[in-house]
Write a structure and sequence with these properties.
alpha/beta; Amino acid/polyamine transporter I; 26 helices; 10 strands; disordered N terminus
Length: 740
């Protein structure tokens, strides 16, 4: 059984890796079309008139705008997070898992795929209602079941086939809306818009929040596109563009339709006639075709999306029978998950036909989608609050956007149905606790504490230790600065502050021989200065007659600490002992620490603290994978400095021939995209020897250069004179990644 599980999961992961660069679905087919068709579906044709009749023009607009406040906030949050990371298969599950762990992702992903599976029944029932308008003598139950079988058959054949059908349906929906537009005029025997809109309804059939709950499934269509993340050619581009353009278009459509409905029929007509649009449009048959097409497409989109979420959960071993549900066909179709979701949808359909009804299902799936929306906003809000260098999306949103989405989702949940909201939240928490016990090794203990923040810190530390480590994703500068006298830090404070703000740390390591501790009396003043600037800082003193041995001993001890230093800061001055520096650099490699050696220009110092030149070296095959070759630490440091200096980065490279020059252009362009470097970043590729290229490079306030394996400190000193400015020489530890 275990071997089958590993084989099935390995097959999916191998295929995902293999097809990552292959052409899949673009923005229009993979995101925009399924999102638009799911939003402009059953609710628009069959329930929007009742919403307007019950709430009035202003009430309906308020409901639509309130629903879109949550949807737009969530769409913007998804757009932001999807441009910061490589979103894998599973859509919302993948996004939440990458930020908060697979346990939280699974606790949300399970209700999500259940909601999508149940929503298939919602759309099939709506399809049957439209069908009976054309053929009133047909049996409602039989039509519903046959429609479900047809939807399942199309989805089962292939996703590409399903999407080709959706293009045709999109044209039908567009034509039906054109028919609505023509119905506004007194032509062809139509009376046009003759009613005076009722601004505020009596809410006689449903109260405000019940009406909202009936409408809200209309705007949950963004999950249809987001859940296709693993099948998109360029998810970083397609998710933001497809999602936000679909939301904008459908919002306009709904607002126009609300005005049209309130002007085309009385509130009583709107409430009693579910297919009022058929009666009032220019061609009633076009509306019926739109109803059938949109509801069929919505069901199809949900049945295509839900199995991909389920499969992603199974790949992470979060579901029973994961070894089966994680499987797929040779061309990437998740058939086992498709069958499982078909069963879920069929059961929901049979229960609804037994007496639950369309509105009951709408209320159930609304709650699951709202929870998912809320968690997507929580992810972005937490990432923004942590303010780590790894969170640098190319599509930025203000912090208030995910906050509004998060609080709006939470508030609406309890306003719609407090009891079911409590049950839903309890289900998510229970799922998290269950998955945490399964996924993690061991459980955290409830520690007694003296303060709230100490308890939170200890709990987080215990959890982090038990989780699989991801040093590249969580990297932030934590500097160890060894000195034998306080004066050695003079002039380095501004640089270290810019290097570590806002989330870094500085540990000043003072090493002194016996009876010479007084030389380090003022070291605490530097630590306090960092603390006053909001930087985590501390001072460590160690008595040792041998400076090199003292640094080595302290490093060995500190590397076992939970918040261990990851950068060794050295200062290359005119009077530096080169032999000591070489020994420190050589021995640090064994301690998993990066090297940052500052060589300050005696006159220019850091200049205007604006322009940073980063000298890069190409990977052996001129291709980046998960890391940027030997350039990771250089780029991360440049990003830290650029953010605090509000400056600009120049990516520089010296090449030997024109062929290498052409490769370098493509390589640095790729690096800027994968590394999400600031938009004002520039490149400088010089066809000359390295030393000559240094002299001809753009003028910079600081130059960052990698340290070669064979050290030549005299050459490093000479570089300061060549570039006529301060330099930072770095060496990666192997645990950094500028592409994470």
């Amino acid at each position: 059984m275990l071997n089958k599980l590993q084989t099935g999961i390995s097959k999916v992961q191998e295929r995902a890796s293999k097809q990552e660069g292959e052409q899949k679905f673009g923005t229009f087919a993979g995101v925009f079309t399924p999102t638009v068709l799911t939003i402009l579906g059953a609710i628009m044709y069959l329930r929007l008139g009742q919403v307007v009749g019950n709430a009035g023009l202003v009430g309906a607009i308020l409901i639509i705008v309130l629903a879109h406040v949550i949807t737009v906030s969530t769409g913007l949050s998804v757009s932001s997070i999807s441009t910061n990371t490589r979103v894998g298969a599973g859509g919302a599950f993948a996004i939440i898992s990458k930020a908060l762990g697979v346990e939280v992702g699974g606790a949300i992903g399970v209700p999500l795929f259940l909601a999508q599976g149940i929503s298939v029944a919602l759309y099939v029932l709506a399809f049957a209602e439209g069908w009976l308008r054309i053929f009133p003598s047909h049996n409602y139950q039989i039509v519903s079941i046959l429609a479900f079988v047809l939807v399942f058959a199309v989805a089962y054949i292939s996703t590409s086939f399903a999407f080709r059908i959706q293009f045709f349906i999109l044209a039908i929906v567009g034509f039906s809306l054109f028919s609505v537009f023509l119905g506004s005029f007194a032509i062809g025997g139509r009376v046009g818009l003759t009613q005076t809109p009722v601004l505020w309804g009596e809410f006689g059939k449903w109260d405000f929040w019940t009406t909202f709950a009936i409408f809200f499934p209309a705007v949950t269509g963004i999950m249809a596109g987001i859940s296709m993340s693993g099948s998109l050619e360029k998810p970083r581009e397609s998710l933001p563009r497809g999602t936000m353009s679909a939301i904008a278009l459908t919002l306009i459509v709904y607002l126009v339709l609300v005005f049209w409905l309130s002007s085309a029929a009385s509130p009583d007509e709107l409430l009693t006639t579910e297919t009022i649009m058929v009666d009032k449009a220019y061609w009633g048959w076009a509306i019926l075709a739109g109803v059938l097409g949109a509801t069929f497409s919505s069901a199809l989109g949900s049945l295509v999306a839900a199995p991909r979420v389920m499969q992603a959960l199974a790949v992470n071993k979060l579901l029973p029978y994961s070894h089966i549900l994680a499987g797929e066909t040779e061309n990437g179709e998740p058939r086992p998950a498709m069958i499982a979701n078909g069963v879920i949808g069929l059961v929901a359909l049979l229960l609804a036909l037994g007496g639950g009804g369309l509105n009951a299902i709408a209320g159930v799936i609304s709650m699951f989608f709202i929870i998912t929306y809320g968690m997507l906003n929580v992810v972005v809000f937490i990432e923004q609050m942590l303010n780590m260098v790894s969170f640098r999306p190319t599509f930025r949103v203000p912090r208030v956007v995910p906050f509004i989405g998060m609080m709006g989702s939470l508030s609406v949940m309890f306003l719609i149905n407090p009891i079911f909201s409590i049950i839903a939240v309890a289900l998510v928490v229970a799922l998290y606790l269950f998955l945490a016990r399964r996924v993690l090794v061991g459980e955290s203990s409830d520690d007694v504490r003296s303060g709230l923040f100490i308890t939170i810190a200890e709990w987080a530390a215990n959890k982090a230790i038990k989780m699989p480590s991801a040093p590249e994703r969580a990297w932030k500068p934590s500097v160890l600065a060894p000195v034998a006298a306080v004066g050695e830090l003079n002039g380095s404070y501004r640089f270290l502050r810019a290097l570590t703000q806002p989330q870094g740390a500085v540990n000043s390591l003072g090493i002194y021989p016996a009876d010479a501790e007084h030389k380090l009396d003022d070291l605490e003043l530097f630590t306090q200065a960092f603390l006053d600037d909001g930087i985590s800082a501390q001072t460590t003193l160690l008595e040792d007659d041998d400076f090199i041995n003292g640094v080595r001993s302290a490093t060995q001890v500190l590397r076992r600490a939970f918040f261990r230093p990851n950068l060794l800061f050295l200062h290359l001055r005119r009077d530096s002992k080169l032999r000591e520096l070489r020994q420190l650099i050589d021995r640090t490699a064994a301690y998993r620490m990066g090297i940052v050696m500052l060589a300050r220009h005696p006159i220019n110092d850091m200049g205007r603290e604006q322009v940073i030149n980063v000298w890069t070296s190409p990977p052996p095959d001129w291709t980046f994978t998960a890391q940027a070759g030997a350039n990771d630490l250089s780029i991360l440091l440049a990003l830290q400095l650029q953010r605090n200096w509000h400056g600009r980065i120049n990516l520089c490279m010296a090449v030997a021939d024109e062929e290498s020059q052409r490769k370098a252009v493509n390589l640095l362009d790729e690096l800027m995209v994968l590394g999400r470097l600031p938009s004002n970043t520039q490149t400088a590729i010089l066809l000359s020897p390295f030393e000559e290229a240094l002299a001809n490079a753009p003028r910079a306030d600081l130059t960052i250069i990698g340290l070669p394996k064979e050290l030549d400190m005299n050459f490093n000193r000479r570089i300061v004179d060549i570039v006529d400015g301060s330099c930072v020489f770095v060496r990666d530890s192997g645990e950094e990644s500028a592409l994470a």
